[in-house]
Amino acid sequence: MTDTSTPAEAPPAALHQDAELIAGVVAAAGRGMVDRETVAEVVALCAVAGEHLLVVGPPGTAKSEAVRRVAGQLGGRYFEYLLGRFTEPNELFGPVDLRSLREGRVEFETAGMLPEADIAFLDEVFLGSTAVLNTLLGLLNERVFRRGGTVLASPLRVCVGAANQLPEDPALAAFADRFLARVFVDPVADARLEELLEAGRRPAPVAHHGGGPTGPGGPQDRLGALDRLAVAARGCELDGVTPLLASALRRLRAAGVPVGDRRAVRSQRLVAAAAVLDGRTVATARDLWVLPLVAPTADTQALARDALGDLIEKAANQSLTHAAEELSRSSAARAERLARTGAALLADHRGLPEGRDSRLRLEAALREIDAGFAPADLPAALAGIRAELVAAVAPS
Predict the structure, then answer these.
(1) Which of 156, 48, 6 has the alpha carbon at shortest distance from 92?
(2) CA 81 vs CA 52, 66, 84, 133: distances in Å
């Protein structure tokens, strides 16, 4: 009998299929949100890398909504909790099993709690008590829950922590370091307020937590695709990119970006995850756009982008177009994002009755393409999308 507990390594064609499926899932999660696509994409990146993510930003900037939407689209068991100074460990990890206690054993009921979640979101994560954070630290490090007589292997793909600001207490530094990737969010820019107001009137995508269809594209298949990509990332060939990665890390340290040995080693997981989400089993310079994510503050992330400028100038990702563009500022990443956005707009436009709003979105996409690229510099794929957009807005 074949053991199906661990997904098999995907061949290249299947890898592309899985990467496209996750790209579609993340795009669906981000639809209707303004300027939060990067958060959704980095959640998926970290889930494939097997790392955890910290999202930092002021209250009311849709941190929890972005995570909730991508988790809902991916499927699986989801756990969310707002931590406070008086949060008890039982609120996260489950209550004492009274039946076991009567028999003299201290065990815990974990059903529906954090130890059994596939994706978790912990808001105000640094407000947890020492007891909560110490237990959480072990779970995040080893994906194993140990408390009393309970030892449980956790299926946790990614834990997303959120905070309004980074902690100043040095005692929290070790805990914060377990969140390898950082995304910093600000309120939506004034220029996009109309878009924000319009998006706020539209219904959110339907979540699929813990069930639903098991066929192609269903929640179970989405989680399976995520796991297959994670297996492919663990086997990703990194030897060719190692000299570039080492050079990039030296530059970060020279620029004053604190990258300790542990974060340096684990940054390879993000590089590998970026490669497989781009449909490849060999990492290249195209994947180094992930490195600013390991910088611990918003200021050092800006320093990282500047320090790595020429190394990531051709970085891009077919699945994580917004994150790759934001973190690399490369023209290749911008072309990938505009091509995917244009294709999605054209697909939506064809399914809608002729209307002014749909035409305005197509025209806006055209303007952004023309503002970003001279005709001679247009990549072939983006040139094709531009031609389709021109035809779609031309008077009939």
Answers:
(1) 156
(2) 16, 15, 10, 14
Q: Which residue has the tokens 């996009």?
A: 192
Q: Helix 331-350 vs helix 380-393: angle between axes, to the nearest 10 degrees?
A: 30
Res 2: pLDDT: 38
* DSSP calls for 333-361: HHHHHHHHHHHHHHHHHHTS-S-HHHHHH
Q: What are phi and psi of 370, to 5 degrees?
A: -70, -30
pLDDT at 149: 79
Residue 212 CA to residue 149 CA, distance in Å, equals: 34
**Predicted pLDDT of residue 351:** 62
Q: Are 44 and 26 in contact (CB under 8 A)?
A: yes
* Burial zone of 104 (CB within 10 Å; 0-12 exposed, 13-18 middle, 19+ buried): exposed
Return the number of other C-beta atoms located less than 10 Å from residue 350's C-beta.
Answer: 9
Whether 294 contacts 346, CB under 8 Å = no
Q: What is the pLDDT of residue 101?
A: 72
What are the DSSP E strand ranges found in 42-89? 53-56, 78-82
Q: What is the DSSP annotation of 78-90?
A: EEEEE--TT--HH
Phi-psi region of 230 (alpha: psi -120 to 50; beta: other; left: phi over 0): alpha
pLDDT number for residue 180: 96
Integer Cα distance of 236 and 190 in angstroms: 42
User: Which residues of the chain register pLDDT less than 70?
Assistant: 1-11, 203-220, 351-357, 396
Q: State how far the alpha carbon of 194 is from the alpha carbons of 34, 199, 201, 352, in Å.
A: 10, 9, 11, 22
User: Dihedrals φ, ψ of 269, to 5°?
Assistant: -65, -40
pLDDT, tens only, 270-300: 999 999 999 999 999 999 999 999 999 999 9
Give Cα separations from 275 to 251, 278, 292, 301, 389 (angstroms): 22, 5, 16, 21, 30
Model pTM? 0.88
Provide the strand spans (E) within 164-277. 181-184
